Amino acid sequence: MDRDGIAPTALEYRVIECEGLKRRRQKPGVRTATAAAASAAAPKSDSKSSVHAGSGCSAYDMIQFYDAAGRGSTQSGGGAIFLPSPNMPSASAAHVFLSTVLIEAIASVSEGRGSTRPFHLFGAPTFQPNDFIRFIEVFRGEPNPKPSNSDERVDRTPTGSDLTGISLSSYSFRPTFNKFASQIVHAGLITPILSKSGGGGGSGQLPNLYALGVLIVLHFVLYYPNEFRWRPVELGYEYNFTEPAINLLLGVRSYKEWFDSIRDRSSKLVKGSRAWSQLVESAMSEARIRLHASWTDSQKFAADTECFWLY
Question: Quick one: which of 279, 292, 36, 32 has its CA closest to 161?
Fold first, then answer.
């Protein structure tokens, strides 16, 4: 999943070109696996047409197809799919990758490499996973704030910031390599709950894993501002040695600026104090506005370009 991992009989590795964007390959891994599943679910054709969001393939179908094909089954059609990386050993890992890939941009947080559940796990030796679970519970339950430049409430659509269909639990592991090797890491464990209807937990809606990834980063800059460190630019990311990894992953610079601003403010406050709690509340409110805008923009991009888009 870290490189071309689909046999030619399943799906040719695609290059996409969308209006206003430079010609680029799909991000290895998630889009490749999902495109393969979508190809299997779509009507057969002799032409090598692009796969896009209209293929009617749910995340549940994707994981069932991908796991079956990875075991060498041809019942789902589409040929053989291989799992070329120990860092992506299952289709479920590819699914939650949408969240925890952002942790690759953080030097002080593990994304579960070195464990048997990479990308399902995230944490650090000083991390308190129960605090994060409560953080997400509050985010799920709070009403939407009004945007600062409008008198209207933000409409919290299910796909805009909905985390239904994601189970979170606390965990501890000792990675054998990568970040915090041989140390005990306290972690959160992400388990997606998918149904045949295509939605999370039978809701008919897919959980917004991109939103969960943003909230993971937000939690660490709020709760662990002094320990938080970005991946050094000089180490490079996806062969880029000039741009911070988080900017490459999110596609914009504004999120990093926001995260850094919150980390700077949190580092000057006492955790648990009234001022710090107010900062957490305001950060959550801002997160809803940002995530709603990101979701709206991504759906418009998908509709305008007919490109296969997961975020």
Answer: 292
- Residue 148 to residue 113: CA distance in whole angstroms: 40
CATH of the domain spanning 90-301 = 3.90.1150.140
Cα 52 from chain centre: 19
Q: At what angle do helices 209-223 and 91-100 cross, to 10 degrees?
A: 50
Q: Which residues contact 66 (CB under 8 A, 6 or more apart)?
A: 33, 36, 37, 81, 91, 94
User: How far is it, in rounded angstroms, from Cα 176 to Cα 183?
Assistant: 9
Residue-wise burial string across 66-87, b where 16 or more C-beta atoms lie within 10 A, e elsewhere: bbbbbeeeeebebbebebeeeb
Task: Read off the pTM.
Answer: 0.71
* β-pair type (15-16, 121-124): unpaired
Token duo for residue 261: 């601003």
CB atoms within 10 A of CB 252: 12
Contact 202, 192 (CB under 8 A): no
Beta strands in the chain (DSSP E): 15-16, 24-25, 121-124, 166-173, 185-192
The separation between CA 259 and the C-alpha centre of its own chain, rounded to angstroms, equals: 17
Residue 9, burial from CB neighbour count under 10 angstroms (0-12, 13-18, 19+): exposed
Query: For the segment 144-193, what is each residue's pLDDT rounded down to a tens digit?
Result: 444 444 444 444 444 456 787 889 999 999 999 999 999 999 999 998 87
73-76: list long-range contacts, CB under 8 Å, 24+ apart.
76/40
Rg (CA), the chain: 20
How many Å apart are CA 104 and CA 246, to the nearest integer?
A: 8
Cross-strand pairs, 110: 123
- Domain ranges for the chain: 1-85, 90-301
